[in-house]
Amino acid sequence: MKTSGYQRASYLALFTILYNILEGLVSVWMGASDETLALFGFGADSFIEVISAVGVWHMLQRIRANAGETRDEFEQRALKITGVSFYLLTAGLVATAVINIYQHHKPETTFWGVVVSLVSVSFMWYLIRQKTAVGKALNSPAILADAACSRACLYFSLALLVSSIGYEVTGVGSLDAVGAMFIAYLSFREGREAFAKAKGMTCSCGCSCTP
Question: What is the pTM (predicted TM-score) of this model?
Answer without folding.
Answer: 0.88
